[in-house]
Every structure is written in C-alpha cells, then in structure tokens.
Input
Amino acid sequence: MPKINQLKYLSALNFALKLHSKQMRKGTQIPYFFHLSSVSNHVIENGGNTHEAIAGLLHDAVEDQGGEKTLRLIKKKFGDKVARIVEDCTDTKIEPKPPWFERKQQYILNLKNKPQSSLFVSMCDKTHNASCIINDYHREGKKLWTRFTANPKQVCWYYESLGKCYYKNLKGHKVLKQNFKKLVAEMKRIAK
Output
C-alpha cells in the first residue's frame, strides 16, 4: 500500500473544501465536499498513491469550479500528475455545459485512452456516485430520478458503459471492479 504524503494531502483537502464550500450534492443538503472526500478515501483504501488521492479530492474542481483557470491553479499547486488525472476525470470545461448525453458519450469515448491513474480515480468517483444513487433510491424512491437531466434508462446506460470501459482498460483492481458490477446491476434493478 503506497504511503500518502499527509502534508500535501492536507493542503489539497483545504483547497477542495474552499473551492466547493457553497456546493451541495444534487437534490440534497449534503455538502459536496463529502463526495470528494469519499472518492479520495476510496482511492486510498484501494491502494492509491498521493497524486491519485489528491486527484480524488479535486476530480470535479475543473468541471464545477472554474474550468481551465482552476486546472492551471491545480497544476501550479499540486503538479502535472494531479492536474492530468483531474483533467481526465472532467467531462467538460465548457460553460454552459453541453447536453448530458453528448457529454457522457464523449467522456466514455475518451476514457478508454486514459492512463491507469485516471481510470482508477474515475472508477472510484463513479463507484461512490452509483452507491449514493442506490442508497438515495432506498430512502426516497422514484423521486430520486428527478435530480438528473437524464432518465433512469440513460443513467443506467452511462454506468454500464463506464463499467465495460473499466473492466477492459483498468488493470488490476479486481475487488473494485466486482463491486462496481454489483452496483450497476442494482442500479438497473431499481431503475425499472
């Protein structure tokens, strides 16, 4: 298990908290920062290194908090490796965002050519998202689906397509892949 540089990590933790301080998880009163820390924890618990753990904290910073300007700041503060992973995990830098289906299709298409670290952080992110969707469904029922610009069938298509990409292109991480497969199967079940 790689050792995490705790000083660098703490700096990234504070940076992520400041960047996302006013953002909430879709349709909830849960501060968005907790998703970021969960993704990063998932990275660490699955053998990630310091760059991957920091990228887990910052994976949505470019997309949600300033685009290219934020990416340059991440590169300056945390280096090229972190910035590359964050950029690879970003589905758009454009505001306003392009339509959902177009963005997701392009993300999947690009993902298969990404380095292992980027695939790994992306999978940790999508694993946490899928887990939250399922848990929120069990709390709220079908009302959950109103949070998304896509319908349940499209959301399932997206996660199933991501899974195929991870299984084919991400080396190792057998347990993470098995868990993701179970989450996708459950998501498809609740979407019916």
Summary: The mean pLDDT is 94. Residues 116-140 form the longest helix (25 residues).
